[in-house]
Every structure is written in C-alpha cells, then in structure tokens.
Amino acid sequence: MSNKTLAIIKPDAVGNGFTGKIMDRIIEAGFKLQAAQLMQLSREKAEGFYAVHKERPFYNDLVDFMTSGPCMPMALEKDDAVNTFRSLIGATNPEEAADGTIRKDFAESIQNNAVHGSDSNENAQKEIAYFFTSNEILDY
Ligand code: ATP
Ligand code: MG
Asked: Is 10 left (phi over 0), alpha (psi -120 to 50) or beta?
C-alpha cells in the first residue's frame, strides 16, 4: 500500500500567513515531511495539475486562483496517507468541513480552500512526481 500523499498549501493560506500553522497541524497529526517547496505556479503548471477538472465551470477561476500567489507543494508520508490526510483537511467546502479540520479553520471559500490533498494512491504518486524529482524526496 502506498503511504504517501501530495499536499499543497494553496495561495490563500500562504497569503494569509497560515503556512506555519498548517504545517504544524500536519506534522502534529503524524505526517513526515519528505519534500516541500514554496513556488509560484505558471499558468501551464496549474492547468496541467487540474487538467481533470478542465470541463468544470470553475476551472478557469481555479487556475487564476492557483497562480495568484505562491503556494507550497509538499510530499508527505504516513500509513494510509491519502485517506488520513483528507480527513485532516475536511470537506472541499469549508462551510461543510468538520470542526477541527484545516479547511474549517483556515479556508476562505469552496475555491480558496487552503489546502489540496491527493484523492488516491495512484494520483498521489503522479502528483508528487509532478512537483518533485526522486532526489528531492527525502526518506528518513
Ligand atoms: P483538492 O483536489 O484541492 O484536494 P478536493 O479533492 O476536495 O480538493 P476537487 O473536487 O478535486 O476537490 O476540486 C479541486 C479544487 O477545485 C477544490 O479544492 C477547490 O479549490 C476547487 N473547487 C471545487 N469545486 C468547486 C466549486 N464548486 N466552485 C469553485 N471551486 C471549486
Ligand atoms: Mg481533488
């Protein structure tokens, strides 16, 4: 079973000064940080990342948002990382996110929802490789 997931602290949360608070929640929850880099996504990079949503009405606004400022992709390791991380962040819409979840506490809206988490082991592998080379993933 894969034990990795790709997280992104999104531009709203970085801009609002929540990067450290969100990383602390993640590490306190038992995830091991294996890679992290603050970066400004190009339009092409953001479009590629969200290509699965290309036909959705919110796609262009989502790409605008994801390129609006720096974000921080991270490779995380934990047993059952994908599911455990999605529980930690809560529902896509922060109004529906459970108390104590990262989105409940730090997200602004259904679009500006503070964090991304991979939705399957297969996508976690692909998404980690989309942002990091194997040399940049530190196993320790
Ligand atoms: P993520 O993939 O970022 O972890 P998710 O899996 O909870 O979030 P998806 O359905 O994959 O949600 O949507 C990807 C992203 O698109 C959401 O995180 C959010 O930023 C944006 N989004 C999703 N639905 C809407 C919507 N109805 N209106 C505006 N933005 C949306
Ligand atoms: Mg998703």
From this structure: beta
Model pLDDT for residues 65-106, shown as the tens digit of each residue: 999 999 999 999 999 999 999 999 999 999 999 999 999 999
pTM: 0.97
Which residues contact residue 9 at a Cβ distance below 8 angstroms, ignoring those fewer than 6 apart?
18, 19, 22, 23, 71, 72, 74, 114, 115
| 18-30: average pLDDT | 98
Ligand 1 pocket member 109 (CB < 6 A): no
Q: Catalogue the active-site residues.
A: 116
CATH architecture assigned to 2-136: 2-Layer Sandwich (3.30)
Ligand nearest the Cα of residue 89 is: 1
- Residue identified by tokens 């390129």 is 67
CA distance 101 to 90: 5
- Expressed in angstroms and rounded, the spacing between residue 110 Cα and the centre of ligand 1 is 7
User: 14 is written with which tokens?
Assistant: 């970085």
Ligand nearest to the CA of 8: 1
Ion ligand 2 residue ranges (Cβ < 5 Å) = 119
